[in-house]
Amino acid sequence: MSTARPDDFFVCDIFDAAPKGDLGSMEHPMFSLSTRPDKTIRHYTRGDTTVTVTPSVRGRATIHDKDILIYCISQLMAALNAGRAIARTLTLTAHDLLMATQRDTGGDSYTRLRDGFERLAGTRITTNIVTGDLETTTGFGLIESWEIVRKSRGGRMVSVRVTLSDWLFRAVQAKSVLTLSRDYFTLRKPLERRIYELARKHCGQQRTWRASVATLHEKAGSDAPLRVFRAALRRMITADGLPDYTMEEEAGDLIRFTRRGMPAEQAGVTLKPQTLDAARALAPGWDVYALESEWRAFWVASGRPALRSADAAYLGWLKGRLAR
User: Fold this and answer.
1) Secondary structure E strands in the chain
2) Distance between CA atoms of 275 and 312, rounded to whole angstroms?
3) Rounded to whole angstroms, how far apart are CA atoms 60 and 252?
4) Residue pLDDT, tens place only, 14-45
5) What's this model's pTM, rounded to 2 decimal places?
6) Over the stretch 244-274, which tens digit does the pLDDT of each residue have?
């Protein structure tokens, strides 16, 4: 039986919180792309960063299991931006989690959700990735623990309490996160989700980002041979179903990602990180990236007037937007 006091945990009660992913796991391949239990220990090194992922007997946490973490991070960030206190232990409603991540809410979904909690708790990460300006080589589970707080009469989980790793919680406190498209959850193929994460992480405010197929293969953490991986990317290019980005193959075995709805004229209009921090202070709880996109569309519709300071123009527009 849990002995936690009410002020020891955070209650997930924010409707329609914008999906958020942590930068560390978006950059580095921590989650399995396999649909079968993956019990292989993985080692990944890029630059000065090392990551070792050790699965449990149930297998490594999958990229679909990551939906649980995205939901938790989204709730915490929405609360943080609204000036609310947060905690590493969260109490959530299983049905709300399934709805927010666009999953079916039938009986089997709760069983799969429980399996996801088990894999997240059992998968161990050893890494020196910096979170919150603190670099340590540490080992941790993707979640520290979880428990079913309340069951339905039929034994199905209703309320769940989950404790995030200290590493992940520090990332939230440092706001080392990025907003994801809500359509991310409609991507059913694991590789599509992983490629979207990489595009979202590396495009940033740029209009385009290029990467070699070999680099994408490494960053994605794919076990497929390079030729099979390349063929999968070509199918993605043809399907053109990636949220926010289009993909195009270029000479030299390169893939180019281009932000949808961002004309070339906008590519040079960038906002400083402190401007986005100011926007968060002005509009607590709002998705500042969505507001930025709305402002960019307004600027284009206005005929793209010359901007002495894009940052001042954005914040001025935002104040007017909030006053309406």
Assistant:
1) 9-11, 20-22, 42-46, 49-54, 89-93, 124-127, 138-141, 143-151, 157-164, 177-179, 208-212, 245-250, 254-259
2) 8
3) 34
4) 988 999 999 889 989 999 999 899 999 999 98
5) 0.80
6) 999 999 999 999 999 887 655 555 567 777 8
